[in-house]
Specification:
The chain is α/β, with parallel strands linked by helices and 238 residues long. It is 40% helix and 16% strand.
Length: 238
């Protein structure tokens, strides 16, 4: 056994480590939350990762995103993470898809291979709900990030079924959309009960967002680490 796995093996033993090495996880969205979630899965020894993000690194990412450096501005996030993860764990099979997941392409991808779990870190409402709905409909376990922006207090971060999420505006919009589609529960989410101060939000006329919300360096990584822990527990309990 290589040194890479030695500490994880002490904790999980042969069976647990084998379960992670045989798992395939789909991570959609590689921003402040998704990038950290994906890296924790890679370092834990997950054997196969499919990474999806159509974005490139921008200067506004530098305050919170794992892959964001002055030297990587303008480069595609998915490919940067693919190269990084192979450098961390050459045994991990990493597929990078440089695209924004939408509509029928979501269903096509979910059905293209066997995924043991899906991580949703999309920050645009419609494709987020579409991914949640179809993963749930196909019976694929999914862990979803609600809003980490506008939050400062780690003690107010929670993990629950989507039905029990509260206070978070993004969670409220997701619940409403899912209710219209006949889904009320069965999706694991990470959310914060901390209220967003009004000054932290500004209108954003871009195609992908209605508003831009201020962020602090440590909250998206915290969400990402908690998501990774939920995924790992799911994989170990299969």
């Amino acid at each position: 056994m290589s040194d890479f796995y030695s500490r994880t093996h002490l904790l999980l033993q042969d069976e647990g480590l084998s379960q992670l090495r045989e798992a395939h996880v789909l991570v959609v969205g590689l921003g402040g939350v998704g990038g950290y979630a994906a890296e924790q899965l890679c370092r834990a020894g997950v054997g196969k990762l499919t990474l999806v993000d159509g974005d490139v690194v921008t200067p506004s990412n530098l305050n919170r995103q794992l892959i964001a450096l002055r030297s990587t501005v303008g480069q595609p996030k998915a490919e940067l993470f693919r190269q990084r993860f192979i450098d961390i764990n050459p045994d991990c099979k990493v597929t990078a898809l440089q695209e924004f997941l939408r509509d029928e392409r979501t269903v096509e991808l979910l059905q293209s291979e066997h995924f043991d779990c899906v991580v949703d870190c999309i920050d645009t409402l419609s494709p987020k709900v579409f991914l949640l709905y179809h993963a749930h409909s196909l019976g694929i376990p999914i862990v979803s990030s609600m809003g980490s922006g506008g939050k400062l207090d780690p003690s107010q971060v929670h993990v629950s079924d989507i039905a029990k999420s509260h206070t978070c505006p993004l969670a409220a919009m997701v619940r409403k959309r899912l209710h219209h589609m006949g889904v009320y529960s069965g999706i694991r989410v990470v959310f914060s009960s901390e209220k967003i101060p009004p000054h932290a939000m500004v209108e954003d006329p871009s195609d992908n967002h209605l508003t831009t919300i201020g962020t602090i360096s440590y909250m998206p990584p915290l969400f990402g680490c908690i998501i990774a822990s939920e995924v790992i527990k799911t994989l170990l309990n299969k």
